[in-house]
């Protein structure tokens, strides 16, 4: 584009120089106006900075999967200990969808539910992260996983799948939404 532009300017300059009569004075004025206009346009184009695309964030999907699995392991350890304390798994505004009950919409409901569940049995739970789907900026992760519940004799009493949405807050992933579904037959 720049070559065509400069060729046009040179052509106008040659025409301006070669015009010799008074009748050509009008032509000289027109050529001069065009030269000024084209010079201004060229300056605007030359001074316009090129827009650069933001650098792509490098996402290490395997590392994120390990981080999420570590959160699942920590959650299971706290649950299996029988003492529900600060879990650090859920965001304060998380909503949890458990089976056969209304969604738990705040921290107090969630802790109360988990405490009553822990007090009523000696079951142990474990989680396995199967897949993670990470947003382009790494600030959201959808996890698909598998859970297993065993009783005090290590007999499997429930298994199923779950899906969790994690968001990054203050540099750490917290669960914002989760739900699970048992794959055991209904009795």
Tell me the distance between the termini.
Answer: 76 Å
Q: Would you identify the CATH architecture of the largest domain?
A: Roll
Largest sheet: 5 strands, mixed
Q: With helices defined by DSSP (H or I, 4 residues minimum), what is the helix count? A: 4
Query: CATH topology of the largest domain, anyone?
Result: Nuclear Transport Factor 2, Chain: A
- Taken as a percent bin, the fraction of beta residues is 25-35%
Find the structural class using helix and strand composition.
alpha+beta
Task: Give a structural overview.
With 187 residues, this protein is of the alpha+beta class. It folds into two domains: 2-47; 61-182, Nuclear Transport Factor 2, Chain: A. Helices cover 41% and strands 29% of the residues. The chain has four helices and five strands, in the order αααβαββββ. The chain has helices at 2-18, 23-47, 61-81, 107-119, and strands at residues 90-97, 124-134, 140-150, 156-169, 172-182. A five-stranded mixed sheet has the order 1-5-4-3-2, covered by helices on one side. A hairpin with a 5-residue loop joins strand 3 (140-150) and strand 4. The longest helix has 25 residues, at 23-47. The mean pLDDT is 83.
Which SSEs are present, and which pair or pack?
Blueprint: H1 2-18, H2 23-47, H3 61-81, E1 90-97, H4 107-119, E2 124-134, E3 140-150, E4 156-169, E5 172-182
